[in-house]
Amino acid sequence: MADAPPGRDGVPVSLWPVAGFVVSRAQFDSMFPSKNRFYTYDALVGAMSAYPGFAHTGSDTVKRREAAAFLANVSHETGGLVHIVEQNTANYPTYCDARQPYGCPAGKAAYYGRGPLQLSWNFNYKAAGDALHIDLLHSPNLVQTNPQIAWKTALWYWNTQSGPGSMTAHQAIVTGAGFGQTIRSINGALECNGRNTAQMQDRVNLYKRFAQILHASPGTNLTC
């Protein structure tokens, strides 16, 4: 097979970032060699328009760290972008908080984990849908059938929600607080402060590998 044609500055076209994204298509594919075809690079790039500060804030190193951190957590949550929905179906009925005034109109077992960061709970579907102007409360299946919506929900959580942490994952990277704080924001109640350290370490290992692929130093404060 012939080499890829040279592009600007002699860099092959396949390695060009798209729309200013610091991750090229080839780098994305190398991070997720067994990914489900649902999770496309183009859908991710398209979804980024909803949160233009993502991987576009700070120095080039910070931008690359944020992309690596986001994709590392995504990889951990989905088994390398293999799973679209939560695999433990026994958990499905547990994600309905009926105390919310809007209840669970799609059904008590409808708000299970979906997408790159496994969006779950009726209140998260409601909040994400409101932010993205999509009725996810009544149509949660959109997160497992529309790739761009799936990526948008992950970016919504990353950029706007602190979860059990004290800051959003986006803030954790752009302020220099470190990758460990992204873990705390996403699943800190189960993986930080000595709980499930193997799960935490898997996220850290993925982050280090992805940062290396993106030619960025991982920084400090990697654990939580």
Automatic annotation (TrEMBL):
Signal peptide annotation: none
Domain Glycoside hydrolase family 19 catalytic: 28-224
Active-site feature positions: E77 (proton donor)
InterPro entries the record matches: Glyco_hydro_19, Glyco_hydro_19_cat, Lysozyme-like_dom_sf
A Pfam family: Glyco_hydro_19
Alphabetically ordered keywords of this record: Disulfide bond, Plant defense
MF term (GO), any: chitinase activity
Disulfide linkage: C96-C104, C192-C224
Any one biological process term the GO annotation gives: defense response to fungus
Protein name (record): Chitinase
